[in-house]
Amino acid sequence: MFREIHKSKIHRAVVTEANLNYVGSVTIDQELLDATDIWENEKVQIVNINNGARLETYVIPGPRGSGVICLNGAAARHAQPGDLVIIMSYAMMAEEEARGYVPKVIVMDADNRIAAASYRELHSTMI
User: Which residues 6+ apart lie within 8 Å of 120 measured at CB?
Assistant: First the structure.
């Protein structure tokens, strides 16, 4: 059996641009793609922390070190510059591989620089 598993995540990235007139997709700084093993043209899910919008699109690499997170085309309707987003990718894996897989997760700072890498998600309980 194959399962769809959380593969990668860019957590709390700041949207730098929203370009309604572009053909489509999301442009992401190549440095962030390398850190999370997300490829050009890979399908990603984007969740807007500010307004709850969720969408799926594909990735276009942006200039390395630029910090760019640009929603293009129709996706631009779901966010505006300054919004915080979570960008996730998933992969189909056989059960054996999935059980031991550790997602590549990075947490961003306010300038879209990596604040934490190899972050391990733990359950959170509100007190």
Answer: 102, 105
More confident position, 126 or 46: 46
Q: In a 10 Å sphere around its CB, with 0-12 CB exposed, 13-18 middle and 19+ buried, how is residue 70 labelled?
A: buried
Query: Does residue 51 carry a pLDDT above 50?
Result: yes
CA angle 109, 20, 59 (to 5 degrees): 55
Q: Compute the CA torsion angle 12, 18, 20, 23 (nearest 10 deg).
A: -70
Q: Note the pLDDT of residue 66.
A: 98
Active site residues: 25, 58
Q: What angle do CA 121, 106, 71 make, to 5 degrees?
A: 115
Spell out the domains of the chain, with CATH numbers in brackets. 2-117 (2.40.40.20)
pLDDT of 24 > 90? The answer is: no
Task: Tell me the binding residues for substrate.
Answer: 57, 73-75
Strand partners, 6: 90
